[in-house]
Amino acid sequence: MTPIILSGGSGTRLWPLSRSQYPKQFLPLISDKTMLQETYCRLQGLEDLQPPIAVCNEDHRFMVAQQLREIGVKPAAIILEPVGRNTAPAVALAALSAAADEVLLVLPSDHTIVDIPAFQTAVNKADVLARQGFLVTFGIVPTSPETGYGYIKRGSKAHGGAYSVSVFVEKPDLKTANEYVSSGDYFWNSGMFVFKAGVFLQELAKFNPKMLELCQQAHAAAETDIDFIRVSAEIFSACPSDSIDYAVMEKTDRAVIIPLDAGWNDVGSWSALWDVAEKDAFGNTIRGDVMTVDAHNSFIHSERKLVAAIGIDNLVIIETDDAVMVAPKDRVQDVKLMVEQLKQAKRPEADLHRKVYRPWGYYDSVDDGERHKTKRIVVKPGAKLSVQMHHHRAEHWVVVKGTALVSKGDEKMLLSENQSTFIPLGIVHCLENPGVIPLEMVEVQSGSYLGEDDIVRFSDQYGRARKA
Q: Which residues of the chain have a pLDDT value below 50?
């Protein structure tokens, strides 16, 4: 069985912690592992588990590779989607990268499951059915009349503890959701699937041949870049955008559903995260430097500052480096409306954190003004930034910890702690860490324009284009 890990989501409903350039699947929301890492780790113990295939967008490729590497996993492939086209094309690309008779376990990378043995038992049942030619999905036994999930109605008893699929339904209103739950015939749509790669592609050819044709062409024209498979952007952009449900599962006569009662949660909002998080005696989930007086049933998260909460109930309070968000728990679905406002106003807080991760390490923008910006830069051992220059800014570098190998123009120098150098505007330069410990340095930029797009990149070991 080959896991297919889908990691293309943006996670805007968990803003300001989750942002489009660093969404929730890359965050340690439930444990000390990220949600992406948890997705793979809960598979440990399954028999004949093959290396996973990950599908993600280009901006997240290094985070996917790094986080899998941290848990000792070398994926069979990391497929880059040049544009988002929903789950059906993403899974089609993965299926085209696998053998036709290989059983695929399709998993979103941003769900949580409490009862791992129950989950693995269901996966083993699905594996048997998939080898018989069925397309299996998991229906979550509902615990409440949720209006934020799609539902699947079961049909007659099928094989091996599964049911035929009667119908997929969109997110209902509260009255309809109550009727669904009361009937006992409806399950939450988990978005998890098990099937043979070849069977899925056969059914896709039957019900959406245009999508399959374009995915085949985009995959055939793919280029390999380090650990990544880059499919053709021009071809893939023309692909229809549909979910697996709409493209195949609603139409095929091979679909079956296995009920799953394993403490599943898609952690799609702050209230959902509060539901599964540990709480104190007053019903509060507290993270970071937080003090409370007469606070109840709230989710309070602090990254930098002391958060003092007095006389509150059912609130979500999230403090990050550059934003504070406060909302009643029953209004957290509207966080996405705030993100839309930020995007319309072209605010960077919609996409980026103050700390921005790069394949070589990260930088933290600690201060900025009209003509200056100060960053803390950390470069991993052996890592190297691109050979580049800037049209509008000069840079001062001060080494705080470790060793820096600096190239500027025709000059090369080795800098150690408390040493510094100046990079004039327009000079071609490069920074690398030749040491065995992280390089920490302070960069002070000055100039008429300090945007991250003022980079002319001449060479880069990570295969990046002209932007940072």
A: 466-468
